[in-house]
Specification:
Layout: E1 2-7, H1 10-19, E2 27-32, H2 37-40, E3 42-43, H3 51-60, E4 65-68, H4 72-75, H5 78-83, E5 93-94, H6 98-105, H7 107-116, E6 124-128, H8 132-140, E7 146-150, E8 159-162, H9 165-176, E9 187-192, E10 197-205, E11 210-212, E12 217-218, E13 221-223, E14 227-230, E15 235-238, H10 245-265, E16 272-281, E17 284-291, H11 298-302, H12 310-319, E18 333-340, E19 363-367, E20 370-372, E21 378-380, E22 384-392, H13 395-406, H14 422-428
Parallel strand pairs: 1-2, 1-4, 2-3, 4-5
Antiparallel strand pairs: 6-9, 7-8, 7-9, 10-11, 10-16, 12-15, 13-14, 15-18, 16-17, 18-22, 19-22, 20-21
Helix pairs in contact: 6-7, 8-9
């Protein structure tokens, strides 16, 4: 098969790494890709949102399967666009329709979908700018802390947890009246705060059948001990000790089954991945959010644990034959440590040469924000630069493999968290 993978981050490098292991893959193109994908596939200078360009490329290179990594092209309707063209109407695509992608593109749509389909989630109300007085009055009646979410895509930055009423009121005004997150906060979901431990559950679906992939826990804040600003993710661990078989059975029965049934009942065309951000609240799962693609950096921890043919999984999703696919999961632990540019998630400098080890043991280096400069040197190009995944039969072994490699990588002002996985290790003691 000739496969086109869209995206440029660590998630896409992990996808590419897994795809090229399959005998079913003849050629893999990544658009636009990064310096890591360039080593194992052919990068294409094409934005993931250039729909006409993607369409022409598919025809020119006789693409058999399209895999969409990030959410933006899905929310903007790439799948609908390709299915509206006579020559790509039947092309297998991994990614939901524009309506399906609204599960991530609109927090309000997502919450209403959960409500209609009996999926447990936090209590909420949604407000617009002309409802500001009602929103402020609503805040006065809620217990604290309270969560404010920009309705639209805000690059992972549109969620605020407000500890007191004054903060909540001023934040709501900033979001609705001052467009703090641009168009994304033209609507704001005000949501009950749920306490507990977060985890991510990933589901592959063809719209009718589903397979639950390995769960993971990610680390969102920049500072050790989960302090400081939120980031796109500083690390991940899979499996998760607090997601035992009883809890995961609740997740399947209370969340996965009604979610997939809801997609089918509401005739939402959905062939792709559902990322379910969950809170384990006293042993009961509640949905914090849906994403319509795999998470990052969780993907880099999850994919190494999939033992069955990955292209087979992607093809089964895209062609509606997931019920015929046997998913095999390794019992091993997989841990990912993200190395970032100094200053991230604020401003940071780019273009520093990166030194990588010649060999790694028990680990894989996934590229995220990397590029090759005119002299041919690997340099940092983004905030999150590399994701290093270690694998082992025990959690400590996986962490040792990951950090051993991390400690052999350097560039000016590089930063990483040294406490990834330590909280889960402590739970085992």
């Amino acid at each position: 098969m000739n496969i086109l993978l869209l995206g440029s981050g660590g998630r896409e490098h992990a996808f590419a790494w897994k795809i090229v292991q399959s005998p079913a893959c003849s050629r893999l193109f990544v658009a636009p890709g990064n310096a890591g994908t360039a080593e194992i596939a052919q990068n294409v200078k094409l934005a993931a949102t250039d729909f006409p360009g993607i369409h022409q490329f598919i025809l020119r290179e006789s693409i058999d399967l399209v895999v969409v990594g990030p959410e933006e092209p899905l929310v903007k309707g790439l799948v609908d666009f390709l299915q509206s063209q006579p020559d790509t109407v039947n092309l297998p695509i991994v990614g939901p329709s524009k309506l399906g992608a609204t599960l991530e593109g609109s927090k309000d749509f997502s919450k209403r979908f959960m409500q209609r389909n009996g999926v447990p989630t936090a209590a909420y109300e949604t407000f617009t700018a002309d409802q500001i007085e009602a929103g402020l009055a609503y805040l006065e009646k809620q217990s604290l802390p309270i969560v404010l979410k920009a309705d639209g895509l805000a690059a992972g930055k549109g969620v605020l947890i407000c500890e007191n009423l004054e903060e909540a009121k001023s934040s709501l005004k900033e979001m609705l009246l001052d467009a703090k997150f641009g168009d994304a906060s033209s609507k704001v979901v005000v949501e009950e705060f749920l306490s507990g431990i977060e985890l991510s559950v990933f589901v592959a679906t063809d719209g009718k059948s589903y397979k639950i992939l390995p769960e993971a826990k990610d680390y969102k804040r920049i500072g050790e001990g989960d302090t400081g600003l939120n980031t796109g993710g500083m690390g991940a661990v899979s499996p998760v000790i607090f997601a035992d078989s009883d809890f995961m059975q609740k997740v399947e029965d209370r969340i996965v089954k009604p979610t997939i049934a809801g997609l089918e009942k509401e005739q939402i065309d959905y062939k792709g991945f559902v990322f379910i951000g969950l809170m384990n609240n006293n042993g009961n799962p509640f949905v914090i959010e849906y994403n319509v693609r795999m998470g990052d950096p969780e993907t880099e921890a999850v994919l190494p644990r999939i033992e069955s043919d990955f292209v087979g999984l992607l093809t089964a999703i895209a062609t509606g034959k997931l019920d015929q696919y046997e998913l095999k999961i390794s019992p091993n632990y997989s841990t990912t440590v993200v190395m970032v540019s100094g200053g991230y998630p604020g401003s940071y400098e780019k273009g520093f040469p990166i030194s990588l080890p010649e060999k790694t043991e028990g680990s894989v280096i996934f590229h995220a924000g990397t590029a090759t400069n005119p002299e041919g040197h690997l340099v940092n190009q983004g905030g999150r630069v590399l994701a290093i995944t270690g694998v082992g039969s025990e959690l400590q072994e996986a962490l040792d493999h990951a950090f051993s490699t991390v400690n052999q990588i350097s560039w000016e002002k590089a930063y990483f968290r040294k406490d990834i996985g330590q909280d889960i290790l402590n739970l085992t003691k």
